[in-house]
Amino acid sequence: MKFLIYKFSYVNFCQPYRTKNWAIRLTKAASSLCVSLVILFLLTGCGGISTTTLKISKILPVVCGSTPRADMIHMLPVEPIVVEDKSGILWMGLSSRHYEHIAINWQFVVKWMKQKNAIEKFYKSCIEDHNEAARIK
Questions:
Q1: N or C: which end of the chain has fewer CB within 10 A?
Q2: Is the distance from CB of 5 to CB of 26 less than 8 angstroms?
Q3: Between residues 65 and 59, the one the model is more confident about
Q4: Range of the domain at 7
């Protein structure tokens, strides 16, 4: 198995590197590819950099009305019950009251998420309206 190992320096950039046990020769295709890559990197190095000046005449503060805060979530307790059957297998279960608590807790979480989404939409529309008003002026 032969490996291509390159010694990178500006004098012999694409020359094969010789080790104690074996030498590697570059084929014409590999050496032309190496030279092409060096030319490509040299030509495109800093050619795409351009400077842009941005003139800001006036900064307008964003003024949004106040929104109500999202409700606090008060989770109801859910306590699992562990039962061992005759063969020694442990089973986990919930009473009907605790199943109801899980459903109520999910309702609280969904309500909180809807409130947070409504607050986010309010601020997003406020910022979009501010930006549109700034463009018009």
A1: N
A2: no
A3: 65
A4: 1-44
